[in-house]
Specification:
- It is a single chain.
- By secondary structure, the chain is α/β, with parallel strands linked by helices.
- It folds into 2 domains: 275 residues, Vaccinia Virus protein VP39 (Rossmann fold); 115 residues, no CATH class.
- Helices cover 44% and strands 15% of the residues.
- Strands 1-9-12-6-5-2-3-4 form an 8-stranded mixed beta sheet, with helices on both faces. The protein has a two-stranded antiparallel ribbon with strand order 7-8. The chain has a two-stranded antiparallel ribbon with strand order 10-11.
- Strand 7 and strand 8 form a beta hairpin.
- The longest helix has 25 residues.
- About 4% of the residues have low confidence.
Length: 407
């Protein structure tokens, strides 16, 4: 009977068919490959259905900042937080208006720059061949010497993408890591005129940036009020003031080492090793999290099925994410909109959406609906045997939007 009651609240949906954005990477939604990125169609759906111009929305796990980019289109004010300080930079880039730029002159000045910038990273030479380093230090020396904020922001993502392509990192993997494939890429580059290729790639990426900035302006974004905070520990931060709608896609269970994925870019942008290590220690797998009461029978049922170390991960995840959301929901006036996937752990598909819905229902929220959308394309969630356990890990097939209304 209980299962039937929950199924009545579930509805299959395809957000991409309901919202008229051409794709999930249209305009400035896809300038940077951020892990498990919030698709703009989900945010647009919520704002079309539950928001009105001038309201305040809040995303405490903002990642790339898609919630804010979409909020401007709907004339909604917003506040964004994320542990990753890149949020502030990426948000500034995503909302910029395009300007005419003498691209050839910019690249010429970059090529002739004598200043150097050496990232404060003890492991730097492990990730780049020695032949590239003097060149890259001068390219980034030019970047850090810029006083024109617009040019600097315009160059940021193209330089990050190109520098990563010239590293040993394998972009097909979610975490920073070497692979035989990435080593072959570097060997091939070293055998060619790689400096010319570097500038050509930067120029092409700048062209793509300007095109996408123009696309964003076609969506008629408004000049709304925005508060954007990177480097924020959402698991302990207090929200000041009231917000109308909390909409977020919290970290995935067992997939939340986002600082490790981004640290190469953080070093290029000037962050210190000590600061990045500090941020990494605040991610859920590596921090102590205070236990909380979780008002969900489903949470307890699945916890009993998971043993040992994995039970510890399970507890830390729910204590951390639900602990933060439980604290923050006290300042939300109208709706909680939580976009989560049913991640596999030890062969079990964990119904995170139902656990969240049960918990907040017990706290006085009304569970309106859970909208279930099939994941179309995301390499992170392909089906495979877990090599560590030999268990067939059925990776996340759907992402579910839990909508709760304040009673």
């Amino acid at each position: 009977m209980e299962k039937e009651r929950w199924m009545e609240k579930e509805k299959r949906i395809r957000f991409r068919d309901l919202i008229a954005f051409p794709s999930t990477t249209y305009a400035t939604f896809g300038l940077y490959r951020y892990p498990a990125k919030f698709i703009p169609h989900v945010i647009a759906y919520v704002l079309e259905k539950y928001a009105k111009p001038g309201i305040e929305i809040f995303d405490p796990f903002a990642g790339y900042g898609t919630a804010g980019i979409v909020a401007r289109i709907y004339n909604c004010n917003y506040e964004l937080w994320d542990l990753n300080p890149l949020l502030e930079t990426f948000h500034s880039i995503a909302i910029m208006k395009p300007k005419e730029v003498n691209l050839r002159e910019v690249l010429r000045e970059m090529a002739s720059c004598k200043e150097e910038f050496v990232p404060r990273w003890s492991n730097f030479e492990y990730w780049f061949p020695q032949d590239f380093l003097p060149f890259l230090f001068k390219v980034w020396g030019f970047y850090h010497s810029l006083t024109d904020t617009y040019i600097k922001l315009l160059l940021t993502i193209p330089l990050l993408k190109t520098s990563r392509y010239f590293s040993y990192d394998d972009p097909q993997r979610q975490k920073l890591s070497k692979s035989p494939k990435s080593k072959k890429r570097i060997e091939s580059l070293l055998a060619r005129n790689w400096k010319d290729e570097f500038f050509q790639m930067v120029g092409e990426e700048i062209g793509k940036m300007i095109k996408r900035m123009k696309e964003y302006q076609l969506l008629s974004p408004k000049q709304t009020k925005a508060v954007v905070k990177g480097g924020v520990d959402t698991l302990s931060m207090q929200l000041e003031g009231k917000k109308d709608i909390l909409i977020t896609s919290p970290p995935y269970l067992q997939s939340h080492e986002y600082i490790r994925q981004a640290k190469m870019d953080l070093f290029w942008l000037g962050y210190s090793e000590d600061y990045i290590k500090k941020l990494s220690k605040l991610e859920i797998p590596y921090r102590d999290v205070n236990p909380i009461t979780i008002y969900s029978e489903v949470y307890s049922q699945y916890r009993d099925k998971i043993e040992g170390y994995y039970q510890k991960i399970y507890d830390r995840y729910f204590w951390g994410v639900l602990g933060a959301l439980t604290r923050l929901q006290e300042n939300i006036c109208s709706y909680l909109c939580l976009f989560v996937g049913r991640t596999s752990m030890r062969g079990y598909q964990i119904p995170i959406d139902r656990i969240f819905a049960e918990h907040f229902s017990a706290l006085g929220w009304m569970h309106k609906v859970t909208l279930i959308d099939t994941i179309v394309a995301r390499r992170l969630f392909s089906y495979r045997i877990n090599p560590a356990t030999g268990i067939n890990d059925k990776r996340t097939r759907t992402e579910n939007l839990v909508i709760l209304q304040k009673k």
